[in-house]
Amino acid sequence: MIRPFLFLILVLISFLLIQARTSINYDEARRALLTAEENLLTGGHTYLSEKEIKANEIFMQYKIKELDRGFENEEENAAALHFFKAKPLIDKSKVFQFLHRMPKGAVLHLHNSASVSSEWVVKNISYYPGLLRCTTTKGKTVLTFRRTPIGHHCQTEYVLVSDERGNASDPQVYDQEFEHIINMYTPHPELEYSTTKQSWTRFQDMFDSFNDALAYLPVFQIYTWRALEELYNDNIMYAELRSTLRPLYGENGTDFPIDRTIQVFHDLNEKFIQQHPDFLGIKIIFSAYRGFEVDRIKNILQDFKRIHKAMPNFVVGFDLLGQEDKGKPLYDFWRILKDFPPTARFFFHGGETNWFGASTDLNLLDALLLNTTRIGHGYALAKHPIIMSAIKNRKIAVEVSPISNQVLNLVWDLRNHPGALFLAQDVPMVICSDDPGFWNAKGLSYDLYYAIMSLAPKNAGLRLLKTLVGNSIRYSAMTKEEKSRSYQILEKHWSIFIDKVLEEVDN
Ligand SMILES: *[C@@H]1O[C@H](CO)[C@@H](O)[C@H](O)[C@H]1NC(C)=O
Ligand SMILES: *[C@@H]1O[C@H](CO)[C@@H](O)[C@H](O)[C@H]1NC(C)=O
Ligand SMILES: *[C@@H]1O[C@H](CO)[C@@H](O)[C@H](O)[C@H]1NC(C)=O
Ligand SMILES: *[C@@H]1O[C@H](CO)[C@@H](O)[C@H](O)[C@H]1NC(C)=O
Ligand SMILES: [Zn+2]
């Protein structure tokens, strides 16, 4: 069904088109077309105060200057460049600095074990006493704190990272190499990641290398705390973390039950909120690897149901993850996903693929049929007009993670990212960071940079940004009360931010 107002716009446009041909009103018709599209764009109807309009003018000066410079010299067009090449330009950018300081609301798609910047991991976890390293028969590194490590098919003996570093001729070079284990950065992504397979293999290897070290209780604690700090430092007030809830282990290397993992998340969150009263905390989306057999997922679902029942407002939902093109499609699991506790929700990854009509692409369909609350990535969504329209009507937000899609090889030039189509048609969406620690990013500002510089039209500014920030609260799994408190805090921070932007320019 075409909505009445859209219908009116269409009638108006046809009328204007006839006019344009028959009279001197060509410019008027042209302007009306532009206006109609601008109104349809995400944020097209968002109100800006006098002050916000002024702040927007400042922002637009930065934005236009950077885009024009990029138009003159494509080498400097960060909006079109791969993040690994663009990052030094972005770090210097006034648009980026503006976005970094801007209150950003929430991040709704973020994987816990790749959420912290690699720089911090090197400084802290690689120096954590007792860290061991081995090399597998396939030449991959495995890290652990278990004194009697298990089941990694190591070809070499485990050695202490501190010993290796002590023996290295240059500890700084050693640290750089260590960082490579958990960071995909390369100056030549076009060579190292010329295929999806290359980028996904490397990406998956990083989890395999790091996960057992991260499961060491004290390390998990400082890592998760740091994750919260990095969000907070990027002016983010809330996050929904996807976690596989692996069992943690202590001194003697024995696994705790996964209830302990969730307890640690919970306690750290409480403590963090106490120290940062304007931070609203995190909630957990329990995620399972989609490559597992159906029976195994069934067991994991039992765990989920039990934990969700104990903490319904903390462990809010369920997801399946891992490369969609290689794992099982959602359709394989629909029977076991059907009877779900009514309070629990799904947050499925879907359509993170370039294959049109393949089983992975059709995950979008099953996500919709299973009543997903949001869709992770939804990269393939624009190819499915019926699903897209249903998603719009049912207000299912798409979690768009531009840098992730680029680094994992779905698109090179982010101006071609389908998120541009979502914005143009006002599909509900939020900007997310997915696994920022694994590709040299931090917080959400880098992804937001691409959203406003590459996905959005040239003249889109604060109105769109404000809408995206609002969306991140609106489409979150927070309760009504939590949302209204979020809006209050956000509004306060937002108006302080706008005042500062204006003050600095006056001086
Ligand atoms: C991480 O490392 C930095 C630099 O060495 C240090 O200042 C900081 O205290 C460490 N943080 C933790 C939680 O160990
Ligand atoms: C460090 O060097 C010493 C002396 O050469 C050697 O015995 C030891 O195995 C080395 N350890 C590592 C971890 O490389
Ligand atoms: C390991 O330590 C935990 C408590 O930290 C204890 O419950 C467990 O029995 C210990 N396991 C072994 C094999 O010593
Ligand atoms: C679909 O999910 C929403 C929450 O995201 C819930 O309110 C609604 O009742 C669900 N509908 C069905 C048919 O399960
Ligand atoms: Zn993801």
Blueprint (SSEs and pairs):
Elements: H1 4-22, H2 26-40, H3 50-72, H4 83-92, H5 94-101, E1 106-111, H6 118-124, E2 132-135, E3 141-144, E4 159-160, H7 161-167, H8 171-181, H9 189-192, H10 196-214, H11 217-233, E5 238-243, H12 258-275, E6 281-289, H13 294-310, E7 315-321, H14 334-338, E8 345-350, H15 363-369, E9 374-377, H16 385-393, E10 397-400, H17 402-407, H18 419-424, E11 429-431, H19 445-455, H20 462-474, H21 480-506
Parallel strand pairs: 1-5, 5-6, 6-7, 7-8, 8-9, 9-10, 10-11
Antiparallel strand pairs: 2-3, 2-4
Please tell me about this protein's structure:
With 507 residues, the chain is an alpha/beta fold. It has 2 domains: 94-116 and 216-491, TIM Barrel (Alpha-Beta Barrel), CATH 3.20.20.140; 120-198, no CATH class. Helices cover 51% and strands 11% of the residues. The protein contains 21 helices and 11 strands. The strands form 2 sheets. The chain has an 8-stranded parallel β-sheet with strand order 1-5-6-7-8-9-10-11. The protein has a 3-stranded antiparallel β-sheet with strand order 3-2-4. The termini are far apart. The mean pLDDT is 94. One 2-acetamido-2-deoxy-beta-D-glucopyranose (NAG) is lined by residues 159, 163-164, 167. It catalyses: adenosine + H2O + H(+) = inosine + NH4(+). Residues 7-99 form the Adenosine/AMP deaminase N-terminal domain.
